[in-house]
Amino acid sequence: MEKDLSRRDFLKNAGLIGLGAGTLLSSVPWMSALAQENTSKTVGEKVRIGIIGPGSRGRFLMNFIKKNSKAEIVALCDIYQPSIDEALKIAPKAKVYDDYRKLLEDKNIDAVFITTPLYLHYPMAMDALDAGKDLYLEKSMAYNVAQCFDLYQKYKSTGRIFFVGQQRLFDPRYLKAMEMIHEGRFGEIQAVRTFWFRNGSWRNKVSDPSLERLRNWRLYKEYSRGLLTELGGHLLQVGTWAMQKLPEQVMGAGGITFWKDGREVWDNVSCIFSMDDGRRITYESVISNKFYGLEEQIMGNLGTVEPEKGMYYYESGTKDGSPAKPAPGFMQMMTDVQNRIFEKLPFAGTSWEPEVAKDVKGNYIMGEDYKITTDGTQEAINAFIESVITQKQPERIAEECYYASAMVLLGYDAVEQGKILTFPHEYRLNYLNHKHQAKQTL
Amino acid sequence: MSSFEHIYKNIDNGRGMLYAWFTAMHTRVDIAICGRNENDLKAIAGKVQDKIVQLEKLANFYDPDSELANLNDITAGTTAEVSDELLSMLYLSMRYNELTDGNFDICIKSDGYKNDMCVDVEIDLCNGTLAKHRYGIRFDLSGFLKGYALDEARNILERYAVRDTLLSIGNSSILALGNHPFGEGWLVAYPGAEDNNIEVALHNECLSTSGNSSSKRMHILSPSSGKLIEGAGMVSVVTRKGAEGEALATAMFVERDPAKRDAILGRFEGARLMATINNLD
């Protein structure tokens, strides 16, 4: 009961309850899986799930699956026994495999979650779809753009349910922010500046040197594409979601500037993704300074949104000519009320005249009282489970996830090659401004 | 369709204060509304916004598509059907013209203006019609509309049993209903002489201010001369109704004779003249 209540709260916060197939659902159709009118029809159903790769991320997702009464974790697969041991604490009745292909042969499994190192995503995901399993694949989709495209085509040809772990697509702050952005409240989005800064080695401690590459696979190019695929995909997906446009080109630079510990992937990287009209999305990560943290700064000619902070800010005027800023007297009153103070409001006088904005204080996307209780992961998993039950793939989610991965992988190639790369036409989908062209017709 | 920026502060048990702001009637509108949850307060503020926007569309002197503009286009000797809402505004305005000894006059922008033009306007409330009996009569409700909007907003708030609200249209037309969450009434301050703020406590009242914020910004016509009133200065009045506040503030700014002012003020029950400031510059 508690789970249902929290889900209702989520939908209410996201503006979904009561909207049915209304405005919000038309722009974020993947949320339809969580619409109350749909979830009420699947009560009593149970999806049997296998987890391939229950490492730290896998177990993180398992805890969310456990909270959904319509799902049951029935199988686990890993070659690293400590991960299996920890995962069995979450799902004690799960059958254990050491070969994922055997797990995929299990007819008692409806769907699989693949949370393995990046280089394994493609073969395992292809096999899972071929085996008729519905698939929740942790991001990024695959190791290179060609693999992503292949996998997308496999999803289309098999007709299975296919989600990738882009949980911001289900985060209430992001949903609300995008609704406001797409209403034009911040004008036309000119640029999106994204960054994710940390100060840490990104390295797991290893007791036995023979386990180094297994445990620290993220640090080696053979298995990983580094910060771009592990962090950048989330941010860039937000950028194209806001702009409703996909980039034409990407350039970038990267290096190992601080953590010179034998790793092969960059600890300092930047990419610029440019649209055909000159607008751009930038991505930057440094993992030896965390001062600026994590953000997507979505910049329209009328205002800026920072969804991670849950804030938005106006420039000196809004599109419809509304006063951009709250009145100082009323703002003072709101502060007084917060402090339970009754004071005079110095604002009355002759008719107001437009002023020039100087200091812009932010506004809360979800209201000041909103408490962050989810980053969207629970809802993404719930939506996947609902989709498996109904066998209805929500619109646009596979495409959003495809481009989130394809962009960062193309960015990786641009940095690696030191070139400005154009998004290959043969790897474009017919989505937003992109049109697919088979290679031989070019 | 309402659309505004807002901030919400929770006060206790899901009840809070919502502050919303938007543009209407060529100015900014600020509303602080209390006592419900955020969604309810947003919805009610939206109703208020919708009403203000609707009134603007109906009675905007400068909008050629407004009903008022169409009415201004009819020729002398013609009788026109008028919507209830516009007719009630015009009727009230004519009444306030009488009560202010002609110092408040919505006909002031008529062609060939004379300060007795109101007498040649015939309003038939039973049949919902208006007739002009003189050439050139045009009505400008700009100095009245904000106050009337305060009264209409009050009706909406009462319909939804909202007790505590502060609504400002352009800072010069203020409705204070009920109480601040942590005090009695609402304390509003406005600029007085020599940079001293004047403070007034409002409780179920309106504060209307009329005047020139600077000597370069003149916008009020004198019915006696038909010319803009020069010089910086302002007058504030507290009234029970917003519409009468607009008429009275204008009249108090136009009429400079203290005895005549007192006579006019006495005709508005409960009205208080708060301040007369000259030389704001």
Question: Which labels suit this protein?
Answer:
heterodimer; A: about 450 residues; six-stranded parallel sheet; disordered N terminus; B: about 280 residues; alpha+beta; T-fold; eight-stranded antiparallel sheet; three-stranded antiparallel sheet; about 30% strand
Secondary structure layout plus pairing:
The complex is a heterodimer of chains A (442) and B (281).
Chain A lengths: L1 H12 L9 H5 L8 H4 L7 E6 L3 H11 L4 E7 L3 H10 L4 E3 L2 H6 L5 E4 L3 H13 L3 E4 L7 H14 L3 E3 L7 H11 L6 E9 L14 H4 L11 H17 L5 E7 L12 E7 L5 E7 L7 E7 L2 E4 L4 E4 L13 H11 L6 E2 L16 E2 L12 H14 L6 H21 L3 E2 L20
Parallel strand pairs in A: 1-2, 1-4, 2-3, 4-5, 5-6, 7-10
Antiparallel strand pairs in A: 7-11, 8-9, 8-16, 9-10, 11-12, 12-13, 13-15
Helix pairs in contact in A: 4-5, 7-8, 8-14, 9-11, 11-14
Chain B lengths: L4 E8 L2 E10 L2 E10 L1 H22 L7 H7 L5 E3 L2 H16 L21 E4 L4 E4 L9 H18 L5 E5 L3 E5 L8 E6 L5 E6 L2 E8 L20 E7 L2 H13 L3 H9 L5 E7 L3
Antiparallel strand pairs in B: 1-2, 2-3, 3-7, 4-6, 5-6, 7-8, 8-11, 9-10, 11-12, 12-13
Characterization of the model:
The complex is a heterodimer of chains A (442) and B (281). Chain A has two domains: 2-169 and 375-398, Rossmann fold, CATH 3.40.50.720; 172-321 and 364-370 and 403-441, Dihydrodipicolinate Reductase, domain 2 (2-Layer Sandwich). In chain A, the strands form two sheets. In chain A, strands 15-13-12-11-7-10-9-8-16 form a nine-stranded mixed sheet, with helices on one face. In chain A, strands 3-2-1-4-5-6 form a six-stranded parallel sheet, with helices on both faces. In chain A, α7 (118-130) runs parallel beside α8, α8 packs antiparallel against α14 (397-417) and α9 runs parallel beside α11 (227-243). The radius of gyration of chain A is 23 Å and the shape is globular. Chain A is α/β, with parallel strands linked by helices. Chain A has 14 helices and 16 strands. With 281 residues, chain B is an alpha+beta fold. Among the domains of chain B are: 1-61 and 141-176, no CATH class; 67-140, ApbE-like superfamily (T-fold, Orthogonal Bundle). In chain B, the strands form three sheets. Chain B has an eight-stranded antiparallel sheet with strand order 1-2-3-7-8-11-12-13. A three-stranded antiparallel sheet of chain B has the order 4-6-5, with helices on one face. The N and C termini of chain B lie far apart (41 Å).
